[in-house]
Amino acid sequence: MVRERAGHLTGAGKSFAVVIGRFNELVSSRLLSGAVDCLVRHDVAEKDIHVYWVPGTFEIPQVAKRAAATGVDAVICLGALIRGETAHFDILANQVVRDTSSVALDAGKPVAFGVIAAETQEQALERAGSKAGNKGWQAALSALEMANLWKDLKK
After folding, report:
1. With bands split at pLDDT 50, 70 and 90, how would you rate the model's confidence at 46?
2. Which of 8, 42, 50, 88 is catalytic?
3. Interatomic CA distance for residues 65 and 46, integer angstroms
4. Which of 3, 68, 113, 128 could form a disulfide with 30 if both were Cys (CB 3.0 to 4.6 A apart)?
5. Catalytic site residue 42?
């Protein structure tokens, strides 16, 4: 018989670090609101949500790595990259994904990725709570599920 396991969506008794880039704060603050709303609605106590603001998306993996070592059950990475007129966007987007992925593999706990890469501010805002839902909420939901699955895998 096949034995399947999946993480539950309850956050009671769990703690989370949210690492968020301040650059493009109009978007990132909405991502944070969505993430916190998701966690609280899934029974995470507000005192168990630790928010770390960093200057931009480049700094997210650095702080995510340190936050993971604080004893939280999962880390949620949030931020917004909006394409400009130079190659900086592409370089930064690729590096942030690569570095956050490395943190996720090395952290010994779940790391959820909620960094938006958009062509325009309008597209980013759509992904931060309007037409396309809220990627902060979705990253928090992923962190909840993974934190519970992680606990199950330790048994």
Report:
1. very high
2. 88
3. 22
4. 128
5. no
